[in-house]
Automatic annotation (TrEMBL):
Its cofactor is [2Fe-2S] cluster; [4Fe-4S] cluster. SMART domains: BATS, Elp3. Pathway: Cofactor biosynthesis; biotin biosynthesis; biotin from 7,8-diaminononanoate: step 2/2. The gene is bioB. One of its GO terms (molecular function) is 2 iron, 2 sulfur cluster binding. Binds 1 [2Fe-2S] cluster. The cluster is coordinated with 3 cysteines and 1 arginine. Keywords: 2Fe-2S, 4Fe-4S, Biotin biosynthesis, Iron, Iron-sulfur, Metal-binding, S-adenosyl-L-methionine, Transferase. GO terms for biological process: biotin biosynthetic process. It comes from Halonotius pteroides. Homodimer. [2Fe-2S] cluster binds at C208, R280. This is Biotin synthase.
């Protein structure tokens, strides 16, 4: 497994990472040019040494759907595009609690409350803000699941209040590199997103922030996005793969603009760039990979997934996800929420039950 590129090798990269060091931008771009099998094996070795052999599952609820004033070019929920999705205001907090309980029963360790919004605003929409806090408290008090939320841009005050209420994690994806971001979004900036991540972190929340691959970005953009995430420090790195939505600017593509090989290579390099973060497969994985291919990323360093439906598109049931995890020789994480994987599989097989929580999304 020694392939030289400007005197940089996969073995050197693995040794450096396992020694507590870091690979840099040049290393990461050179690694992306290496054979996929060797790169995957290297990333798998890093995960096996530094990880715990489990795959963490999270689940989300689309707590406020559609009519978003922002113009993110991949997003079905933007009011700028005619995508025909169902829209609704912020759900009753009791409905959100019910979704969290279903996610917990399906084995999720983490539950995310997601809104389609530039930012839930304490000042502009105080009633909605109060409902968000009520939902956080209900899930905090009545389940064992960890709570995550994706509420858009935050002020410093809002971040502090959410952390004080017991929100464990904050999700805010950066989507792509700083260079490519402006091609995808014009209504807010890359720096706006970073600012919110820093505020959430300073307030004491763990960060879950990631990307969407296959939007037309270059391999260097993929590396640069991961390096930005390393600068802010994320504990969970969701990797979405574009699932083109008709009506959006990226909706005329037949599929994501990334090959399966490049997807696996990117996952492997993300593992090396973020040795201890959960590299989490999220939206689009089951559209871009066949069921019997879905274990590949988990043999290339990935160790997390989003189970159930996404925000506006269907996902995969918990039983199938458990099979994918086991096929990769890994086990579901049970650190926070102890559940019975065999019961989830049996339930799905007997009832054909769709273990999905209602409506969830890709961002
Ligand atoms: S990605 Fe988020 S901020 Fe952008 S349009 Fe969609 S819901 Fe709005």
């Amino acid at each position: 497994m020694v392939y030289e590129t400007e005197n940089r090798t996969i073995d050197d990269a693995v040794a450096r990472v396992l020694d507590g060091g870091m690979i840099d931008r040049t290393d990461a771009i050179a690694l992306l040019a290496q054979p996929v099998d060797d790169l995957a094996a290297a990333a798998d070795a890093v995960r096996a040494t530094l990880g715990d052999g489990t795959v963490d599952a999270c689940s989300i609820v689309n707590a406020k759907a559609g009519s978003c004033a922002e113009d993110c070019g991949f997003c079905a929920q933007s009011a700028h595009f005619d995508t025909g999705i169902e829209t609704h205001g912020f759900l009753d907090p009791e409905e959100i609690l019910a979704a969290a309980k279903r996610a917990e029963a399906d084995g999720a360790q983490r539950f995310g409350i997601v809104v389609a919004e530039k930012g839930v605003s304490k000042q502009k929409r105080p009633e909605e803000w109060a409902d968000v806090l009520r939902a956080v408290r209900l899930v905090r008090d009545e389940t064992d699941i960890e709570i995550d939320a994706s509420l858009g841009l935050l002020t410093r005050e809002e971040a502090n209040i959410l952390a004080d209420e017991g929100l464990n994690h904050y999700n805010h994806n950066i989507e792509t590199s700083p260079r490519y971001f402006d091609e995808i979004v014009s209504t807010h900036t890359f720096e706006d997103r970073l600012k919110t991540l820093r505020r959430a972190k300073n307030a004491g929340m763990d960060l879950c922030a990631g990307v969407i691959l296959g939007m037309g970005e270059t391999p260097a953009d993929r590396v640069d996005a991961a390096l930005e995430l390393r600068t802010v420090g994320v504990s969970s790195l969701p990797v979405n793969i574009l699932n083109p939505v008709e009506g959006t600017p990226l909706g005329d593509r037949e599929s994501a603009a990334i090959s399966k090989t490049d997807l696996i290579k990117t996952i492997a390099v993300y593992r090396l760039l973020h040795p201890t973060a959960r590299v989490r497969l999220t939206g689009g994985r089951e559209v871009n990979l066949a069921t019997d291919e879905q274990h590949w990323p988990f043999e290339a360093g990935a160790d997390g997934l989003l189970t159930g439906d996404y925000l506006t598109t269907g996902g995969q049931d918990a039983a199938t996800d458990i099979e994918v995890i086991e096929r990769a020789g890994l086990t579901p994480n049970m650190a926070v929420n102890e559940f019975d994987p065999e019961r989830v599989k049996t339930t799905a097989n007997h009832d054909g039950a769709d273990a999905a929580v209602e409506s969830r999304a890709d961002d």
